Amino acid sequence: MNTLLETYRRDGYAIVTELFSKQELARLIQTIETTRPLSANFRRSSELFAIRQFLQEIPTVKDLIFTQGFRDFIRNHFGEGYFVSKSIYFDKPPLSNWFVAYHQDLTISVDQKVDLDGFGPWTVKQNQFAVQPPLSILQNNFTIRIHLDHTDRYNGALKVVLGSPQKGIYRPETIDWNVEKEAICEVPAGGIMLMSPLLLHASERSTVPQRRKVIHLEFASLPLPEPLLWSEQIRF
Asked: Number of folded domains in the chain?
């Protein structure tokens, strides 16, 4: 446990290769793929299938994701009091082949737009509000990506700038590759990637026709100043 946390704090991410069994993955995938899209939170095209507010749209997956082992992992490493503040499901099929440039995940999802010191800029997509909060909130949050498919350098694994969260807000255009080191984060099916929202990350185009199904969960524990609320606040 200590070694993983040390890696996370030093590099901005850590990988656990076997947290979900093949049987657990199969139940998750079956539940997702047999659910009919019923709202605008389901986005489907030839290049991407995504479900925003995933745990609310398919509530039956919650017990499949939050196994005893997964809950123990979170509590053993981060303690009590955390909740899911954002949940997204991504399925990038073989036709999906674009790159994502280096960036940090600097926004959180909230229930409304209000003027508050330290919060901004704002964005609104499909009536979902997102805002960049004070740095202290981002530093307290963490993200877990559950990989339902094997992901490697050939089918769009994330690449990251090692240790970038230690620099706070880090603009991609200022990266000095004479100083910084890059890593490719290969994760097997059933593994997870733990990452800081402040980790600079990107992904290349795929060179093989393989699907990449990922459950993206963001965790928070701090309350937001009134009247602002997290758009998702799911306890487990």
From this structure: 1
